[in-house]
Amino acid sequence: MSTVTNDNLNTNIKRLPMIALRGVSAFPSMILNFDIERPISIAALDAAMNNDRRIFLLAQRDINV
């Protein structure tokens, strides 16, 4: 059995821009169309497009926020 250390974990950490999806859930390999209106979400999309085109999508718990 191998031992996991903090040194091993820190080398795999990557920061990704994030967009919270209102009323929608996304799954791996899913093609999804959605509108982006909030300035912070637009900035996250711009950051993704200017780098490696990867973005972290998550379902927003309260869609009224």
List keywords for this structure.
65 residues; alpha+beta; 2 strands; two-stranded parallel ribbon; 2 helices
What does this molecule look like?
Helix content is 26%, strand content 12%. With 65 residues, the chain is an alpha+beta fold. It has a domain at 15-59. It has a two-stranded parallel ribbon with strand order 1-2. It is globular, with a radius of gyration of 15 Å. It starts with 5 loop residues before the first helix and ends in a 6-residue tail after the last strand. The mean pLDDT is 84.
Rounded to an integer in angstroms, the radius of gyration calculated over CA atoms is: 15 Å
Shape: globular
Uncertain stretches of 5 or more adjacent residues: none
Between the first and last Cα atoms, what is the distance in angstroms?
Answer: 45 Å
| Largest beta sheet: strand ordering | 1-2
Number of helices: 2
Report strand %: 5-15%
Structural topology:
Layout: H1 6-10, E1 18-21, H2 39-50, E2 56-59
Parallel strand pairs: 1-2
